[in-house]
Specification:
Layout (H helix, E strand, L loop, with lengths): L8 H9 L5 H19 L2 E4 L1 H12 L12 E5 L27 H8 L3 E6 L19 E2 L2 E5 L5 H8 L5 E6 L5 H7 L2 E4 L19 E6 L2 H12 L17 H4 L8 E4 L15 H16 L3 E4 L8 H14 L5 H4 L4 H12 L2 H22 L4 E5 L16 H11 L4 H6 L3 E8 L5 E8 L4 H15 L10
Parallel strand pairs: 2-3, 9-10, 9-11
Antiparallel strand pairs: 1-3, 4-5, 6-8, 7-8, 7-12, 11-13, 12-13
Helix pairs in contact: 2-3, 5-6, 7-16, 10-12, 10-13, 12-14
Length: 471
């Protein structure tokens, strides 16, 4: 029999259900993978073997419901509180802080679904950037090339899944923090519709940006993890949403319909950054458009004119979110230059500036959904460049750093503002042997449509047959 890390998450659930693998065997195997490869990848910042093995033993003895995940291992993102485990948030500010007494909703949802946490996955400081290179932990490396980064802020989760240290992992996405690591590490990453996940609707975050979602090797695995995160409660409040299925795993079994797909390389940062599209990204985007036509879909150019004012408004929200960390002066000395810059910039903002930014992004959401309404799905590139090398982002000049992030990731944040679902999908390997991906953006609430289309493309692209060298 193949080794557990060679199976998809859904296949592992099948093996567990058939009694061919115990929860303890599964957890022990992946802990061995972590021991062997985490020192190279730096994907997990905390490993909790004793707790994981105890939970697996309880499941094997019938004292814990296997749920839909049947004891599959995962790691909590190190911004998520889990009772008894330190939350580091990628910051020196959190060093030495006591472990939380209560778990966050996402950790509880994964427990109820039968997942077993092996620890915490690495993040950038407070999740505020698109790369995972903090000052409290060695930089998280890309399994396809250890000299390159894994993206962020869910970079540790992506590195762990791509390196087969975990079958899958939950992340969170406030401006691309699931999709950016997915593109960098050759994974499937879903940013769900605002309001889909009961424990992380997005409505409690500034401008409604941040939602949890899955990082996985296959579309089917992403659907399984999405079912676990959603649980039994459906609180879908996205404006004009489509009916959500009973389970997304079952939705993949349905017959897909012919879709009208708009394609575009436009993005709302064009006035801020004049950087072009890397040839690998452009080739992947055009190849997928051709495949979609070959699958029988109606592919058209989307004549999208992004509403002006976006860069200033989004930057205001980003700075305001950093200021809301509400850190005392004594702790600010421990912050990285970018984080400190954002905190201080946010504190200088007046209430009228924040209100203006919120109004602009609300209008931007309405305008964008309106312009996208003529199609079922929008295809865009993923990253605009190849995944950057470690150390690429300027560590001392925050303004240069911000511009660099925009130039690499101009296609991600607008989806958060619009509250739409978006699927990051791997396409192949570029000239440097690094993953290249694309983005599919759906109508409000049409997460199932994206997953169905992603599964169609997955069969054509066959990216899962291109393993990372770290294997």
């Amino acid at each position: 029999m193949s080794l557990p890390h060679e199976f998809s998450a859904r296949e592992l659930v099948g093996l567990r259900r058939n009694g061919e693998l115990s929860a303890s065997e599964l957890v022990e195997f992946f802990l061995t993978r972590v021991d062997a490869h985490n020192p190279t990848l730096n994907a997990l910042v905390t490993v909790t073997p004793e707790q994981a093995l105890q939970q697996a033993c309880e499941m094997d003895e019938g004292h814990r419901d296997p749920g839909v995940l049947w004891g599959l291992p995962f790691a909590d993102k190190d911004l998520t509180n889990r009772a008894g485990v330190t939350t580091g948030a990628g910051s020196r500010v959190r060093s030495g802080k006591p472990a939380p007494l209560e778990s966050d909703p996402m950790a509880r949802a994964m427990d109820v679904a039968g997942g077993i946490s092996l620890g915490k996955s690495a993040v950038c400081e407070f999740g505020l950037s698109s790369y995972t290179e903090s000052l409290v932990f060695p930089p998280t490396r890309n399994p396809y090339s250890p000299d390159h980064g894994s993206g962020g802020s869910s970079g540790g989760a992506a590195s762990a899944v791509a390196g087969r240290l975990l079958p899958f992992a939950p992340g969170s996405d406030g401006g691309g923090s699931i999709r950016i690591p997915a593109w960098a590490c050759g994974l499937v990453g879903l940013k769900p519709s605002r309001g889909l996940i009961p424990g992380g609707t997005g409505f409690d975050s500034l401008a409604g940006l941040v939602v949890p979602g899955p990082l996985a090797r296959t579309v089917g695995d992403a659907a399984l993890l999405l079912d676990a995160l959603r649980g039994s409660g459906i609180t879908h409040r996205a404006t004009g949403h489509a009916a959500a299925p009973a389970t997304f795993s079952e939705a993949l079994q349905g017959v897909s319909r012919r879709l009208r797909i708009g394609i575009t390389t436009r993005h709302p940062w064009e006035s801020f950054s004049g950087a072009g599209l890397h040839k690998d990204a452009d080739q992947a985007y055009r190849a997928v458009a051709s495949h979609l036509e070959g699958l029988g879909h109606d592919v058209v150019e989307l004549h999208w004119e992004p509403r002006s004012g976006y860069p200033e408004a989004f930057t205001t929200i980003w700075e305001s979110a950093a200021a809301s960390l509400d850190l005392p002066q004594s702790e600010r000395e421990l912050l990285e230059p970018l984080t400190r810059y954002l905190v201080e910039a946010g504190e200088r903002l007046g209430a009228h500036e924040l209100a203006r930014a919120l109004r602009e992004l609300s209008a931007w959401e309405e305008d964008t959904i309106g312009q996208f309404s003529s199609v079922d799905v929008v295809l865009t590139p993923g990253l605009a460049t190849v995944p950057p090398r470690l150390g690429f982002y300027d560590a001392q000049d925050p303004e240069v750093n911000f511009r660099q992030q925009v130039e690499v990731t101009p296609y991600s944040s607008f989806v958060n503002v619009a509250g739409l679902p978006a699927l990051a999908l791997p396409v192949g390997l570029g000239a440097e042997g690094l993953p290249v991906g694309i983005q599919l953006v759906g109508q409000p609430g049409a997460d199932a449509t994206l997953l169905q289309l992603g599964a169609e493309l997955e069969q054509v692209l066959g990216f899962t047959e291109l393993p990372a060298p770290i294997w």
